[in-house]
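Margin note: ligand = zinc ion.
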Amino acid sequence: MEMAPEIKNLERLCIHTITTKPLEFEEACARYSALGVSGISIWRDAVEGLDPGKVRSCLRENQLTPVSYVRGGFFPSIDAEKRGAAIANNINMLEEASEMDIPLLVLVCGADPGQSLKTSREQIKKGIETILPVARRLNVKLAIEPLHPMYADSRSAITSLKQANQMAEYFNDDFLGIAVDVYHLWFDEDLENQVKRCGENKNLFAYHICDWNVPTTDMLLDRGLMGEGCIPLKQIRGWVEAAGFSGFYEVEIFSTRFWEQDQNLFLENLVKAYIHHS
Ligand code: ZN
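Resulting structure:
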């Protein structure tokens, strides 16, 4: 498989608000826009307390396309009451996404270390089954995001693209697909095939990028900027494009190191890294 062609402009660049966590939502929008960024994925905490109409007008004024709302899911629990609360929370998030015209809700599916991964996966299936009709009614799609297996204890019982494909294919629903995040999947020897399978079944809904720092000093908050680490980003993008994906390339970086930096400088470096290393 050939590498993906060079990226020449920012038409497909989307940034997750968590990437520039120190910035207030409106400031983030203005700065992304000033740099020519096209899309924005919105984390719930970034817009908490903001009127949805205000969010929509801010996006419009800055010519930013809303891409994903992050993040729903967390379905499993040994406690039935908590499982019910998770469903209610997901439905709230779908309503919020709809009010802000965000077309996709990302699902970090969840896990409970007090039960088997198999049981957690059954509860994830049940949770998705319950919220899918709401997603359809509100016209907001759902994307299962498989996570790196180091998060299998409490964040996701879905730890490979193969498992996510199986889940999406079980439902075979236009409103359910997958978010492929390189951070969670880059090392999978079967990744090329699974990306192909995901595309063939029309389940490839989103593509998240960053890099894997060597060494990684924190399992959650030490993601790298594209080109800083060891993820073969151009190769994976080649597979994703060959699978028919034509959406945004979403930069999603949690990093205490970058959050401490001047965010203007960081964003300039991010754009350079996107062009040269994604
Ligand atoms: Zn992601």
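The chain is about 45% helix and 15% strand.
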